[in-house]
Amino acid sequence: xxxxxxSGGGLVQAGGSLxxxxxxxxxxxxxxxxxxxxxxxxxxxxxxAAINWNGLSTYYAGSVKGRxxxxxxxxxxxxxxxxxxxxxxxxxxxxCAALLQRSSFSDTYARAGTYxxxxxxxxxxxxx
Length: 128
Description:
Layout: E1 3-7, E2 10-13, E3 18-25, E4 32-39, E5 45-51, E6 58-60, E7 68-73, E8 78-83, E9 92-100, E10 117-118, E11 122-127
Parallel strand pairs: 2-11
Antiparallel strand pairs: 1-3, 3-8, 4-5, 4-9, 5-6, 7-8, 9-10, 9-11
């Protein structure tokens, strides 16, 4: 069992930056793949970015590619989502999710059902 805690959300103006953190506790994070999802009010939870267990493969939604960067520090049991050039449409609750990766997830990383563990979310609000 792994527990995930997101942090780093807040209010920022359009064009600004934030770095979200997803800290894992309970066991080593080194074999876990991690995804970030977001959910705006009244909308479905959407895929944002994902990273495989060793950090060598990363995946992004088209809407954030070039602006968001996901990274993984296994020594710190933490995954980061660096967000730059933020837009009002990036406003949402951001969730991190993890799964113990036993095989490639290059076909399934964008599906919420792929992940076994979820954090409680952190609010990101981008003002125009």
